[in-house]
Amino acid sequence: YRTLLTGGSGFIATHILETLLKSGHSVVTTVRSQEKADRIQSAFSQYVDSNSLSFAIVPDIAAAGAFDAAVVSDPPFDLVLHTASPFHFNTKDSQKDLLDPAINGTTGILKAIAKSAPHVKRVVITSSFAAIVDAAGKPAGYVYSEKDWNPITAEQAVANAGFGYRASKTFAERAAWEFVAKEKPGFDLVTINPPLVFGPVIHHLSSLSSLNTSNELLRDIIQGKYQAEGLPRAGVFFWVDVRDLADAHVHAAERKEAGGKRFFVTAGDYSNEEVGRIVQENFSEYKDKVGDLSKAGYGEGRPKFDNKQSLEVLGIKYRTLEESIVDTVKSLKDIPA
Ligand code: NDP
Hints:
This is NAD-dependent epimerase/dehydratase domain-containing protein. This protein is an alpha/beta fold and 337 residues long.
């Protein structure tokens, strides 16, 4: 396959890139600068020499026409995986910093493909559990799955960065499904909706201060942030390992039967108590850094989930929480503080 991957510098996208290349795809990935392209090029140099990896520079996915040039390639693309979207909470302007890039990036790439890339048969978009979860809570025993949609409103979206991020993913994914329903383009759509993603960091990172958002909990634990006050309860209560998530994206792109579907890709539920205990049991050097775990358990009953469709259609075999946490912590050790 000839495949376009957006946001190739990201935590998740770097794993997707590795999986695509190992599966024999010829990949063009978009990054924001030549410097980022050069770093990826040297990390994946074996594939550059075989002409299976090249780059397109897209500095800002929020800009009109940002992907118009990137979707055109010779040979033409068969598949597009759109992962680029801001995931952080460092903003007072959710509209500009979260909603615009998420929504314009998604609609912009779909329009560009429909207009100029007629060979594309499938577009896979990285959405999120943020587009599924209901912040108001669900009744005890509720089973979350891909049939759920976050009911967040436009007014709530700009209230704070947490709402802003969840709305950015919800509105962008909705816009994507509406686009294919209305425009009936020559491709079908798959969305991948992961909850909190743990897993080893393999993208370039100059220091742990610029770590991707979903691994911050583990960085904070090993740096002793919770040593005095103890670990709080988890905010997101489901998780997945980034390597399984990369497989999910690649299988979603390749498998015909995935077309038109939305996938809640999760290994299951977790508590910060379990995460803290895994760190204590596997890393004696961090044992005293973890802090009290008595307030980090599940609380009122364990949340329930249905990931059957990801098992049956995408064939994912999920890693255990212990394997994921151990490998993540090991990878963080190599990065300067
Ligand atoms: P990262 O922050 O590592 O990756 C985000 C990527 O998007 C980076 O490549 C970043 O480029 C790019 N990007 C962000 N804003 C822009 C912009 N305005 N213009 C161009 N590129 C931009 O996070 P993740 O890898 O965790 O996230 C990847 C995707 O997965 C996102 O869509 C996110 O919403 C989704 N997701 C992540 C989850 C998680 O727990 N990690 C859970 C659910 C969904 P640069 O690095 O150059 O800024």
